Amino acid sequence: MEKHMYSRRSLAALIIPLIIDSFLSILIGMADTIMVSTNGEAAVSGVSLVDTISNLLVQLFAAFATGGAVVVAQYLGSGDKEKAKDSAKNLIYISAIISVIMTIVVMPIRGIIIDTCFGDIGEDVRAYTDDYFVPILLSYPFLAIYSALTALSRAENRSVRTMLVSVMMNAINIGGNAILIFIYGLGPRGAGIASLASRVMGCIVMFILLHKGTDKLSLKGILSGPFSPDLIRRILRIGIPAGIEGATFNLGKIFVQSLTASLGTSALAINAVTGNFNSYSNIPGNGINLAMITVIGQCRGRRNFDDISYYTKLLIALVYISVFITVLPMFILAPQVISIYGLEKDSIQKAIPMARLCLFMCFAVWPLGFTLPNMLKAVGDVRFIMLASFSSMWLFRVLGAYILVRGLGFGVEGIWYAMYMDWIVRGMLYFWRVASGRWKTKEVI
Fold it and tell me: In this predicted structure, which of 2-16, 231-245, 411-425 has the lowest mean pLDDT?
C-alpha cells in the first residue's frame, strides 16, 4: 500500500507529459519569433510587443482555468465526482463568455492600445504589430476554451492527452509558419494566422475528447447545464485574485516593455531574445507547476496536510533539478543559439552575457518565486499571492527598472536586474507564507 496519495509512477505519468506540453507551448511563441526574424529586427520587435500585451489578456483565461482546476481537483480529491463534473461545465461557460467579450472590445481599439503602451516605436515596427495582433485577437475564444479544457484534463490526471494535442498544435503552427512566412511572404501576419489555426484545432480536438461520456469530467450535455452561480462563485474566488495577480504582473511587464521600446529597436530585439532564454529555461518548472495544482489540490480535497507538505518539498526539489539540467547546455551554447535570431553583431555581443545571467537566475531564484505560489493557489490562499505579487512587481520590477535605466543610466540590462530583484523578494515572501502554515485555514469547497 502506498504511503502517499501518488505513487512515484503515477506522479511521473502526470509530470513528464506536462513538461513536454510546457515545452511545446513555449515552442509556438519561439517559432513565431525565430521564423519572423527573416523579416529583420523590426518584425521580431513587433511580435514581441504584441505578445507582451497579449500575455496580459491571456492571463485572465489562465486564471479562470486555474480557478476551475483547483475547484475540480479538490472535488475529485474529496470523492464528489458530480460536483467536479458540474464545475467543469461552468468553467467552460465562463471562459467562452469572457473571451468573446474581450475580443469584441479589444479588436477596434488595438492600435490605440499599442500606441498608448509603447509610444513612438517606428512605423515599420508599428505596421508589424497590427499584422500580428488581428489573428491573435481572433484566436482568444478558442485559446480560452482550450486553456480550460487542458486544465480540466490535468485535474483528472490526463496529462498525456494535453501533450498529444500540443504536438498537433505545434505541427500546425510551425507548418503554417513555413508556408505563410517563407512561401507567401506574409511575415508576422502569417505567424499570427498559423497561431490562430493551431488554437482553433486544439480547442476543437480537446472539446471532442472531453465530450466523451466515459471520462470522469465528461462535458456531455454541456448545453443543458447546470449553470450554477455557487460553482461559478467558487471558481471566481480563485480565478479573480489569480487574474488580478497575473494581470498586474503582465501590466507591469508592459510598463517595462514601454521603457525598453524607448531604448530603440536593438534593445527590443535583445530583450526578446533574452526573454526566450528565460521562457525556455523555465519549461520543466512550468510543467511541474501545473502538476502541483492537481497534486496539492487533490490532497487538500482530502484534507491530507501531511501529503501537501511532502509533495510541496518534493516538487520544489524536482524543479531545481530539472531547471539545472535545462539551463546548463543553454549556458554553454548561448552564442550559437543567439546567432540564430538574426541580430546585428553588436546586439549579439550584448545579448550573450544577458542571456547567461538570466539562465543562472532562473536556476537560483525562479523556483521559489514561481513554483511555491502554485502550492498556495491549490489550497486556496490566493489573496496573499495577489498582494505579494502586486507589491513586489511595482516596487522592484517596475520602479526599480525606471530607477536603473532613467536614473542611473543602465541600458536594457537594467530592466533585467530589476526583474531579478522582483524574483528574489517574491520568493522570500512565498517561502515565509508556506512555512508559516497559515494556508491551512483556507477553504475552497
Answer: 2-16
- Residue 443, in any domain of the structure: no
Cα 239 to its chain centre, rounded Å, is 15
pTM across the whole model: 0.82
Helix (H, G, I), strand (E, B) or coil at 302: coil
d(CA 86, CA 228): 8
Residue type for 369, please?
Answer: G
Residues in the chain: 445
**Domain containing residue 100:** 8-438
Rounded to an integer, what distance in angstroms lies between the CA atom of residue 103 and that of residue 113? 13
Whether 28 has a pLDDT exceeding 70, the answer reads no
**Is 3 part of any domain?**
no
Map residue 374 onto helix, strand or coil. helix
Residue 445 located in a structural domain: no
Closest CA to 273 of 33, 18, 32: 33
Q: How many domains does the chain have?
A: 1
Query: Grid cell 550573450 — which residue?
Result: 352
How does DSSP classify residue 228?
-
Quote the CA–CA distance of 30 and 26 in Å, as a whole number: 6
Cα gap 32→431, rounded to integer Å:
36
Query: Is 444 contained in some domain?
Result: no
* DSSP 8-state code for residue 184: S
